[in-house]
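hey m, so remember when u said the tokens were messed up on ur end? i reran from scratch. heres the input so u can diff it against urs
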Amino acid sequence: MIPLSSKLQFVINMLSDFCPIKFYKKHVSLYKSREEAEEDLLAQLKIVSESENAKRAYKAKRHITNFNDLISSKSCDKYWDVRDIKMAQKRTEKQRAIHDRHIEYNAYQEHDVHSSRITEMTKKRVINEDDTSFTKKVMIQSSSSL
């Protein structure tokens, strides 16, 4: 017997208490969109409907018949709406973190620029003060020697 994929086995196990949301929650990381998840769930049901086990095949066919009603139920819509909101919140948090890092980086850059200017100005003052004090000393020494 060919080993079953985990998704197929999961669908077989939930045939008696079928709920698309269980499938979505279990395998949500595999899909980029609701449509992809729904298509794959339907594909898994079709595989089960063609199985040799008559009881499983009957249940799968019944779920395929009602598939559109099941996937467009209020609970499924709510699941996807909440998931979309959570994804949007995560994107917003990530964008906020990136924005905060840019602001922090810009503040550090601006601080470095001001710090460099102050350092240069201080160096110039020290040099000028040293020159001035040297000139005063020379003038004092030269006037005292007269």
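this time it looks ok to me. Helices lie at 6-13, 20-27, 34-49, 54-65, 67-71, 74-145. if urs says something different then somethings off w ur setup not the seq
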